[in-house]
Amino acid sequence: MRAVVFGVAAMAVAAAAAPPPVAALRFDRAGLLVAGGNTVRIAAAPQWTPQPSITSRFAQVFDTAVSPDGMLLAVAGGTPAVTGAVEIYDASTRALLRTTARAGDLIMAIAFSPDGKRLAAASADHNIYVVDASSGERVARLTGHVGPVLSAAYSPDGAILATGSADRSLRLWDAQGKLLRSLQNHAGAVTGAVFSPDSQLLYSAAEDATVRVWVVSNGRMKHIIRGLEAPVHGLAATPSRDRLVAACADGGLRIVNVETGAIVRTIRGGSGESPWAHAAAVSGDGRWIASADAAGQLRVEGFPE
């Protein structure tokens, strides 16, 4: 299937300046959410035509998340070294409902719990803020990382929250916010985490150019997936989670078979000064794969067979 390639600036009306770097990509029912600069732009399938964008009050937007019922859109960001927070929008009307998870630095990553009741916000101030998704009230502040927290993911059964940090560690927390264990084997900042469908395994990606497979129950590292050739900036998964997509610093996407650990496909990036694959996402039906680079260019194509 032919790829659609365009700059994020083309998604805005009369955009005169260069497009901002893309910080995160997320598919929702409306299409593809593209977070960058102080906006979240929306591209609608199947032609990926521009839709009205959301302009955040944050100086920088770093991540988005959609509640499991599709009713809420969370936008994370802030001002570097000053403040961070999460804006909660009505996903249909795009009206701002509340601002929550206020932190002392940027909110870098967010995740809804599978039941949609809680939202975890990972901050560059080294903490994770867990809030009630409906009221915005803080439920817990999780401490222990000694570097900016870059990734957050709930297990499908909702029992565990995994967080990854620039301190090269992963931490696993229970539903009450108690630290269960710290996973220390990465040799670079941990940039992404995905659980297996049965919540028994955790896949983590890092700037050490590996994806590591962990046994959740005991924290044992089961396997290291090598051959990615470059630091990994982000990690996405197909709906069935039988494939992982690693967005790498050399501009390539690596598609990994989770059963075998084999890299089954490499999608090379575009040419030019700024490489592809600063971020990646897979659509909920598994049909589309999107990637973006730090120069704001976006690529959407059919997921390779």
Radius of gyration: 18 Å
Q: What series of H and E elements makes up the topology?
A: EEEEEEEEEEEEEEEEEEEEEEEEEEEE
Strand arrangement within the widest β-sheet reads: 1-28-27-26
Q: What proportion of the residues is helical, as a percent range?
A: under 10%
Q: How does this model look, in words?
A:
There is one protein chain. With 305 residues, the chain is mainly β. Helix content is 0%, strand content 54%. It has no helices and 28 strands. It has strands at residues 4-7, 22-28, 31-36, 39-44, 49-55, 60-66, 72-79, 83-90, 96-103, 107-112, 118-123, 128-132, 138-142, 149-154, 160-165, 170-174, 179-183, 190-195, 201-206, 211-215, 221-225, 232-237, 243-248, 253-257, 263-267, 279-282, 288-292, 297-302. Strand 7 and strand 8 form a beta hairpin. It is globular. The model is unreliable at 6-16 (pLDDT under 50).
Question: Which short descriptors sum up this protein?
Answer:
mainly beta; four-stranded antiparallel β-sheet; 54% strand; 305 residues; single chain; 28 strands
Short description:
With 305 residues, the chain is mainly β. The chain has no helices and 28 strands. Strands 1-28-27-26 form a 4-stranded antiparallel beta sheet, with no helix packed on it.
